[in-house]
C-alpha cells in the first residue's frame, strides 16, 4: 500500500509538528482542528520553524514553500479525512475524546485507511475497540519537537496486524525517524520509564531532599541527561505528566505510580510549566531566561 495522503487531527504542538514533518517529506497533509484560529496559529508556527531550518541551512526557500504548499487546513472532520491513506490523531490526551474521534474516523474513512494515535499513554487496544478495524489501529507516538526528535514509538494494540505495523514502521523510516515497536501496556516504554523518574524527582523536591536546580543538575551532570527531569516536566506540561501517571497508576494498580501530591497541587493551581508560564521554573522572561520559580527559590 502506497501512502501519499495523510490527515493529522489536532493543530497543537504535536499536531503541527507531525503535519510539518509529513509535509516536508512530500506527503499531502490535511491538518484538522475545530478551531479555525488554532489552525492559523499552527501554520504560523510551522512557517517559523521552517525559517529556523532555513537559517541553519538545512532547508531552501523553495523547500519551505513546497512544505507549506503540501498542507491544507480543515475544520470539518469528515471533509478532512476523505480519501486519506493514514490518519494520525494528535488531539488532547483525553480518553473519551479519543474514543469519540475514532468512532467517527471508522465511519468517515475508507476501509483500508490506517488509524493511528499519537497518544502518550492511552491504550491502543481500548481505542481500537470502538472501531470495526482493530487490525488497522496503531499507536504512532512522536516525540516533541517532532521535526527534530528521531524516535517514533510504534505501539501495537491487541488486534493490530503485522501488515499495519510494517507499513507504519516503513513510513516512519521515510520521515527520517527511528521507529521502535512496543506492545500496548500502560505508558508503553517511553512514559513507563520517564514518568516515574519525573514523579520521583518531584517527590525529592516535595520531601525537601534538594531544590529544583540541584535535582536537575545532578541528573544533567551525573547521568548525562540533556535536561533535568523537573525542567523536562515543565516542557512536557505538568498536566500531561499528571494524566499519564494516573493512567499508569490505574492500569497497573501499583502505588509506585501514584502522582506526588505536589504535582497534583501545582496542576490544580494552574502551574503547568512552559505552557502556563510557570511550573518548577518561571518562564515569564522567556525560555532562555528561565529561573527557578519563586515558590521553590530558597535563599
Structural class category: alpha/beta
| String of helices and strands | EHEHHEHEHEHEEHEHHHHHEE
Query: What would you call the shape?
Result: globular
- Give the helix tally: 12
Q: What is the average per-residue confidence, as pLDDT, rounded to a whole number?
A: 96
Main β-sheet, spatial strand arrangement: 3-2-1-4-5-6-7-8
Strand content: 5-15%
Give the CA-CA distance, first to last residue: 61 Å
Low-confidence stretches: none
DSSP helix fraction: 40-55%
Q: Based on DSSP secondary structure assignment, what is the total number of beta strands?
A: 10
Largest sheet: 8 strands, mixed
Radius of gyration: 20 Å
3D structure, described in words:
This protein has an eight-stranded mixed β-sheet with strand order 3-2-1-4-5-6-7-8, with helices on both faces. Strands 9-10 form a two-stranded antiparallel sheet. The chain has twelve helices and ten strands. The chain is α/β, with parallel strands linked by helices and 299 residues long. 43% of the residues are buried. The model has no long low-confidence stretch (mean pLDDT 96).
Condensed summary:
Helices cover 46% and strands 15% of the residues. By secondary structure, it is α/β, with parallel strands linked by helices. It is globular and about 55 Å long.
Amino acid at each position: 500500500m502506497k501512502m501519499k495522503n495523510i490527515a493529522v487531527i489536532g493543530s497543537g504542538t504535536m499536531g503541527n509538528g507531525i503535519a510539518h514533518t509529513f509535509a516536508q517529506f512530500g506527503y499531502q497533509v490535511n491538518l484538522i482542528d475545530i478551531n479555525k484560529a488554532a489552525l492559523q496559529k499552527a501554520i504560523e508556527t510551522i512557517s517559523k520553524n521552517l525559517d529556523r531550518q532555513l537559517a541553519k541551512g538545512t532547508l531552501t526557500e523553495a523547500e519551505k514553500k513546497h512544505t507549506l504548499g503540501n498542507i491544507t487546513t480543515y475544520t470539518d472532520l469528515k471533509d478532512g479525512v476523505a480519501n486519506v491513506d493514514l490518519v494520525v490523531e494528535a488531539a488532547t490526551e483525553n480518553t473519551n475524546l479519543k474514543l469519540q474521534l475514532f468512532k467517527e474516523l471508522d465511519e468517515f474513512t475508507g476501509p483500508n485507511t490506517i488509524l493511528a494515535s499519537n497518544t502518550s499513554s492511552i491504550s491502543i487496544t481500548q481505542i481500537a475497540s470502538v472501531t470495526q478495524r482493530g487490525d488497522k489501529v496503531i499507536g504512532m507516538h512522536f516525540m516533541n519537537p517532532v521535526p527534530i526528535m528521531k524516535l517514533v514509538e510504534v505501539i501495537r494494540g491487541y488486534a493490530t496486524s503485522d501488515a499495519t505495523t510494517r507499513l507504519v514502521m516503513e513510513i516512519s523510516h521515510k520521515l527520517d525517524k527511528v521507529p521502535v515497536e512496543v506492545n500496548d501496556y500502560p505508558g508503553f516504554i517511553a512514559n513507563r520509564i520517564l514518568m516515574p523518574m519525573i514523579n520521583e524527582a518531584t517527590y525529592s523536591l516535595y520531601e525537601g531532599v534538594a531544590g529544583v536546580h540541584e535535582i536537575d543538575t545532578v541528573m544533567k551532570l551525573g547521568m548525562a541527561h540533556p535536561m533535568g527531569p523537573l525542567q523536562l516536566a515543565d516542557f512536557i506540561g505538568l498536566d500531561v505528566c499528571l494524566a499519564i501517571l494516573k493512567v499508569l497508576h490505574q492500569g497497573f494498580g501499583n502505588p509506585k505510580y501514584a502522582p506526588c501530591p505536589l504535582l497534583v497541587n501545582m496542576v490544580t493551581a494552574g502551574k503547568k510549566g512552559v505552557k502556563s508560564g510557570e511550573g518548577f521554573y518561571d518562564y515569564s522572561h522567556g525560555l532562555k531566561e528561565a529561573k527557578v520559580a519563586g515558590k521553590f527559590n530558597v535563599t
